[in-house]
Amino acid sequence: MRRAALFDVDGTLTDTNHLHVTTWWEAFRQAGHQVAMHDIHRAVGLGSTDLIAHLLGEDRDTGQDEEISSAHSTLYGTYFNRLPALEGASDLLHALHDRGRRVVLATSAGGSELEALRRAIDADDVIVGIASADDVSSGKPAPDPVHHALEIAECAPENALFVGDTVWDMRAASRAGVRSVALLSGGIPRSDLEEAGASAVYADPADMLSRLDSEVLAGT
To answer: Which residues fall within 8 angstroms of residue 70, CB to CB, at 6 or more apart?
Structure first.
């Protein structure tokens, strides 16, 4: 019986959510929109098109979407050579691998951004695959990314756990029938994560690692 550990990346394994907030804010500003950073922060984790729609509304000028998304990508790309992994991220993935879990990343990142994130995490030797935004028709909170990650892991939903840091992660896991574990390292309040379906909440990867055998793996 195969078991899996599926991971979001931004805010979960890498300390990058606030970089996304700042660069999305600047991308919106350049396009003539004033969007509160607080609102952008809560939208991080959505794919680019969904994030723009969530913040500007469905009645926006969709002709600006590509311009805004491209500006964000360009601005965020200036940080690629120094993206920081969260403390314990690599050790956590290796520990789960050592306990027989197939580790799969499920992220909206792709291309050079994904390469930069993987360099930061430094755990390619235990990552069996990646479900990126390019692989599915709908991103989180739709269950598609989690379903695809399960396919890569060749694992049934009841034998997997999904680790993320946003309500979108928790909702996607719940809709896919996968137990979700939340980390506070992305800056989202515990109550929001629990309300969205988190079965357990930890401070960050290092905290999760410290309680791996006593709490985290129970039941999966």
So the answer is: none
